[in-house]
Amino acid sequence: MTQFEPTPFDIPSDSGGKDLGIFLPIANGGWILSKNKPELDGSYAYNRKCAILAEEAGLDFVMSMSKFRGYGGETSHWNSSLDPVVLMAALAEVTSKVKVWTTVHTILQNPAVVAKMMATLDQVSRGRGGLNVVTGSYKDEFAQMGAWPEGVDHDGRYDLAKEWVTAIKRLWREDSVTMDGKYFQLEDCESWPKPEKRPFLVCAGSSKKGMHFTSEEMDAIFLSGGDPVELAEASHAAKADAAAMGRYVRTYSMMTVLLADTDAQAEATARHYAAGLDEGALHGMMRAYGFLDAEIGKENAFTKKARSSFMSAHVAGSSQTVIERLTELFEVSQTDGLMLIFPDYMTGIPKFGQEVLPVLRERFPGKVKVGSHG
Ligand SMILES: Cc1cc2nc3c(=O)[nH]c(=O)nc-3n(C[C@H](O)[C@H](O)[C@H](O)COP(=O)(O)O)c2cc1C
């Protein structure tokens, strides 16, 4: 699509393949708002097993989100969640190949602190560390700790993020950084050790401002939604925006995969989840997404979708059905990767690894580069 090449990070998309990874369930309940979902406690023990299973399955990355306030409801959805930086350092020690991508909120952490955290993760993981950069958008999540920047609106938070990421990139490569920004001031600021290689950077901005920030500064963008045609449009727009700035940005999406032996079984399980929708948790999620109290409890396009109880796009079916849906997704959208969520990671990851992944690898092998490294 563009003449620009991705910065290589030892992942399939370096040469046109698809990056496939796991969204780690670091918060209780995972990504299904239902009383009928499989038990998922969001503990370190569970996530440790997920990372090991992901590596054994041959997946490319595991990523952790960062959350400070849950959605409540009968299931206390996401009320308990792990710290993603400490978690990823630990998971780097129990794995050796899979990339370990953590998340940091730019409104919470000083860039010099995160520059050092990531340089440390770079050593622990031997070059496998990456960072999901999030601005923070749910006021209650940060106001509860006095950390909501009043007077900085949505787009302002991306201006802040732009200064933040500029500071971090400079701290990773320069001996001393002096920077007089609107949000961050560094004065002869030193940061050692340096990462051996700049860590992978990703962001999931879906607004115009967020997508532009991502195309300009990041190695990859998570696009929202699951419709292949809409993803194709968003992917094309992000890549064109990056190309206009002389860069390449990888485009990813996210999908919950409910695998069963037959389509009928998978669909029955999906209906069972929907029947147990946790209304209270749904209302909590809507508050976090910025819905006003007066709108909560009413039916609209958002609640219609949410009644499935899945918090992301999903596919439910046999391995064959999942293969066909994901093949169509990649063929139509031309995205570079997919982050997977499972209702039950303990059974989902191995089944996906054995029955789905080998076919996707074969269908989307990437190009063998001629001549560049002999
Ligand atoms: C895959 C993915 C991961 C995300 N991770 C987090 C996260 O860990 N913490 C958070 O506060 N927001 C997270 N978000 C929200 C995004 O950072 C972003 O704020 C949201 O998509 C809205 O886009 P906007 O900021 O451009 O309006 C995530 C979104 C996606 C799609």
Word description of this protein:
The chain has 374 residues and is an alpha/beta fold. It has one domain (12-363): TIM Barrel (Alpha-Beta Barrel). 41% of the residues lie in helices and 15% in strands. The protein has twelve helices and eleven strands. The protein has helices at residues 44-57, 84-94, 111-125, 139-143, 154-173, 208-217, 228-244, 263-275, 279-288, 301-306, 319-333, 345-363, and strands spanning 19-23, 61-63, 99-105, 129-134, 177-180, 185-189, 200-203, 220-222, 250-259, 314-317, 337-341. Strands 1-2-3-4-7-8-9-11 form an eight-stranded parallel barrel, surrounded by eight helices. Strands 5-6 form a two-stranded antiparallel sheet. Helix 7 packs parallel to helix 11. The radius of gyration is 20 Å and the shape is globular. The two termini are 25 Å apart. Flavin mononucleotide is lined by residues 65-66, 103, 132, 134-137, 204-207, 210, 222, 224, 254. Residues 65-66, 103, 132, 134-137, 204-207, 210, 222, 224, 254 line the site of flavin mononucleotide (FMN). Residues 20-330 form the Luciferase-like domain. It comes from Novosphingobium pentaromativorans US6-1. One of its GO terms (biological process) is alkanesulfonate catabolic process. This is Luciferase family protein.
